[in-house]
Amino acid sequence: MDKFLLQQQVLERLAEDLLQAEQAVRAAHETATHEENIAENKYDTLGLEAAYLATGQARRAEAIRLAMANWRRFRPRPYDAIKGIQLGSLVCLVDSDDKQQQLFLGPDGGSMTLVSGTQLVQVISSEAPLGRAMLGKCEGDEVSIQVAPIRQQFEVLRVL
């Protein structure tokens, strides 16, 4: 798997997200400022609600811009067994049911699934509990996280 191609997929996905967020900002702003939505009494809050929505969408767009900047500056390095898993590592974990998952430890954001060949790759940040737990680990090491009342354990199969 090519980490640089994965990075490009992340940037493309973030660009799509940014476009959608900017469109949402414009739509909410137009609703907030449209003359038909001027409040006629204290219970007429459509314009105010749209203004709040526009502010939230603008914050979301700014967060996406920041994530894009972080991903553009990011330079994934080859795995160094002395340092263990670091930012930029591509990790294959296996759980107790022998279910494997591919994870790409990135500088920002998560909840993004990419496709590399026939495999799905989950992007996670080093701020995520699993990302933090993996830092410094090597192939063959155990990774353990607590999710609500359940303790999940994984073994590091491969690192690139």
Automatic annotation (TrEMBL):
Residues 85-159 form the Transcription elongation factor GreA/GreB C-terminal domain. One of its GO terms (biological process) is regulation of DNA-templated transcription elongation. It holds the Pfam family GreA_GreB. The keyword Protein biosynthesis applies. Keywords: Elongation factor, Protein biosynthesis. Transmembrane segments: none annotated. GO terms for molecular function: DNA binding; RNA polymerase binding; translation elongation factor activity. This is Transcription elongation factor GreAB. It comes from Acidovorax cavernicola.
